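Hi everyone,

Forwarding the result from last night's run.
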Amino acid sequence: MGIGSRTYSILLSPDEVRGYSVTVPALPGCITQGDTVEECLTNAREAISVYVEELAASGDPVPEEITPPQLLRVTVEL
């Protein structure tokens, strides 16, 4: 039995070699990658599904993202 749908923010970071690495801030350790943004979205959906299914199967609580993370930039004088 599924747990319904959930929405999670993902963070795409340019990879040093190519494409992007993808993390899910609300799900520590849920990481994937992709060469394009579209591939990242597909891979993130799959990684999140597997991660959440494994948590639910082991009886662990499934985190919900209550407040999306904020991306802020700061400038520092060097």
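Residues 1-78 form a domain with the Double Stranded RNA Binding Domain fold (CATH 3.30.160.250).

Cheers,
N.
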